[in-house]
């Protein structure tokens, strides 16, 4: 356990081999293979979502601080995967984790995918993984709305075109919600239209926003089609995509 705490201290290293191949990969293996006691996992969770990790220099763009934040947000989904098998967090602790992750989603501004010479930052994809784990763990209408709003926030970016499959990762929490059948068709339709509303903003921001929305909706369409077949929701997605082309 002390080794894991120490490794978390270096999870933000700009050295991709150390950060990704050694530290994260080792933590992934240890956490998912039940090396730690429940108390230790709770300790690692608290460490990962603390101000010195998940919110380390939050708001910076284009700096190495993103690596610490983007890799800290990968720890909650690992621990939540253990929690799914054998509950280790109380409801209060779960909601505390959810609150921190959601706040991070809204505050993170460095959305670079692959950084030349330093490897993956991929904060949006990693945040999507955390949202997906939370969506599977906390299942109620109110929290479903929080997940939908967070995904909407990440999709509707107008200053960076997602090019590293972020859209596919953002679809995952949506599919987890679809599987739960908590929300009505009308609620899904309203969310879909809220994602695709394009304000009258100047170019190139307008084009970037439309591109990110379209890429996400295409990915969502095929995932829903594969899982559910042709439905009113897939028809709605297609209509929304057509409207974006006008």
UniProtKB/TrEMBL annotation:
Pfam families in the cross-refs: DUF2785 (PF10978)
Source organism superkingdom: Bacteria
Matches recorded under InterPro entries: DUF2785
Protein name: DUF2785 domain-containing protein
Organism: Bacillus wiedmannii
């Amino acid at each position: 356990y002390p080794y894991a705490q120490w490794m978390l201290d270096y999870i933000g290293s700009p050295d991709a081999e150390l950060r990704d191949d050694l530290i994260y990969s080792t933590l992934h293996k240890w956490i998912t293979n039940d090396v730690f006691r429940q108390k230790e996992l709770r300790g690692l969770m608290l460490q990962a979502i603390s101000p010195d990790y998940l919110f380390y220099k939050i708001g910076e763009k284009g700096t190495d601080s993103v690596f610490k934040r983007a890799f800290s947000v990968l720890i909650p989904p690992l621990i939540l995967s253990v929690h799914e098998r054998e509950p280790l967090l109380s409801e209060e602790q779960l909601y505390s984790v959810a609150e921190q992750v959601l706040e991070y989603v809204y505050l993170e501004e460095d959305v670079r995918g692959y950084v030349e010479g330093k490897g993956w930052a991929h904060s949006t994809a990693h945040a999507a993984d955390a949202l997906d784990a939370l969506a599977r763990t906390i299942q109620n209408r109110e929290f479903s709305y929080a997940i939908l709003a967070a995904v909407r926030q990440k999709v509707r970016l107008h200053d960076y075109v997602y090019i590293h499959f972020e859209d596919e990762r953002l679809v995952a929490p949506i599919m987890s919600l679809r599987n739960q059948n908590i929300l009505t068709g009308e609620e899904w339709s309203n969310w879909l239209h809220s994602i695709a509303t394009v304000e009258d903003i100047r170019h190139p921001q307008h084009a970037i926003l439309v591109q990110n929305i379209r890429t996400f909706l295409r990915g969502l369409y095929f995932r829903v089609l594969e899982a559910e077949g042709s439905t009113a929701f897939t028809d709605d997605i297609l209509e929304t995509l057509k409207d974006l082309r006008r």
